[in-house]
UniProtKB/TrEMBL annotation:
Record-linked PROSITE patterns: ATP_CONE
Physiological role: Negatively regulates transcription of bacterial ribonucleotide reductase nrd genes and operons by binding to NrdR-boxes.
Protein name: Transcriptional repressor NrdR
Domain of life: Bacteria
Cofactor(s) this protein cannot do without: Zn(2+)
Length: 153
């Protein structure tokens, strides 16, 4: 581990502790060259699947794009930032737990629609109208009727 102060390559670990959540390790280190101390954290790094777009191109998963889509659909709606963050987290967890190396962008769109349906019906309709490219009023009516149905049927 390089020293952040003098860039020397040799550092000594003085103390190692597991975080309270158990998801990271904290290490206190000392540089053998400049004798300064610093802390490092080790965390598990999971890689998100690559997104395959409609045109066949591939791009890295970007949680900021996901957040932007949700925020656009939820604009001026009474949904807390914590609820949006939780929805993003659930979508990311579903993608990670799938174990897939690639995911079609349509699958992400479907996950977003499910989360929006849970969070806010109006935002769901907004997103669905763009995502599904509604052509006429009948498609809006079908989407509205769909969210009006009791869940589980």
């Amino acid at each position: 581990m390089k020293c952040p102060f003098c860039q020397h390559d040799d550092t000594q670990v003085l103390d190692t502790r597991v975080s309270e959540e158990g998801d990271s390790i904290r290490r206190r280190r000392r540089c053998t060259s400049c004798d300064k101390r610093f802390t490092t954290y080790e965390r598990i790094e999971l890689t998100m699947p690559v997104v395959v777009k409609k045109n066949g191109s591939r791009t890295d998963f970007d949680p900021k794009k996901l957040q932007g889509s949700l925020q656009l659909a939820l604009r001026k709606r009474p949904v807390s930032a914590e609820a949006v963050d939780a929805a993003i987290h659930r979508i990311e967890q579903k993608l990670l737990s799938s174990g897939a190396r690639e995911v079609v962008s349509g699958q992400i769109g479907e996950l977003v629609m499910r989360e929006l349906q849970r969070l806010d019906k109006i935002a769901y309709i907004r997103f669905a109208s763009v995502y599904k490219s509604f052509e006429d009023v009948a498609e809006f009516q079908d989407a509205i009727a769909e969210i009006g149905k009791p869940s589980g049927k």
